[in-house]
Amino acid sequence: GAGVSQSPSNKVTEKGKDVELRCDPISGHTALYWYRQSLGQGLEFLIYFQGNSAPDKSGLPSDRFSAERTGGSVSTLTIQRTQQEDSAVYLCASSVYGTGGTQYFGPGTRLLVL
Amino acid sequence: DQQVKQNSPSLSVQEGRISILNCDYTNSMFDYFLWYKKYPAEGPTFLISISSIKDKNEDGRFTVFLNKSAKHLSLHIVPSQPGDSAVYFCAAGTGGATNKLIFGTGTLLAVQP
To answer: What is the distance, to the nearest Å, from the Cα of residue A72 to the centroid of all Cα atoms in its chain?
Structure first.
């Protein structure tokens, strides 16, 4: 299919380790978003990309979180020195810029920090 | 400070009846609203949206109503089907460049056969 894909689907890591989460948006979508959903919570915005630049990083919870996007396509979310409170489902979405917010989501990466 | 609130964590409805899911927001700058549906272990799926210039949008069995003065929107599903059982999230955004969405905490809908 031509939907948003994310990898890995599940990740278990030890506290203090670094993790990288990958997102492949829908081809042609210029906007890309990262959200996370902690247990019992709604989706929390993390960062937004327009092309390769990130005009809105306001949701990144700490400087341990970073993200990049290359070639206007694939994005990587990196969490350094993971903590147990980082355990969540990390969701990526993409949209055609200017369509008024219809974002299409990937299946998510379930991260568990032990 | 939760800008988008779904006060009912769960709702149970009989098949064939109407499901009404509610959502309240506090930020008057929001100018478009969306509903997403989420099955376990899957990402949210876009369902229906409405802009602030309208008060109703209909798509098949799904209708979204917007009451701007009350800062309230609702999703009606008629008739409800067992396959509609899922978590429903409302989301709101502004027409600005970021298109960042603010999501509610979700309502788990169970449609009983």
So the answer is: 15
